[in-house]
Amino acid sequence: MDIIRISLLGICGVVLGFFLKGTRTEYVSFITMGIGIIILGLAVDKLDYLFRMIGKIQQSLSVDPEYFLTLIKMIGITYIGQFSAGICKDAGYQATASQIELFCKLSVMVLSIPVLMALLETIQEFLG
Question: What is the distance between the alpha carbons of residues 94 and 97, in angstroms, rounded to a whole number?
Answer without folding.
Answer: 5
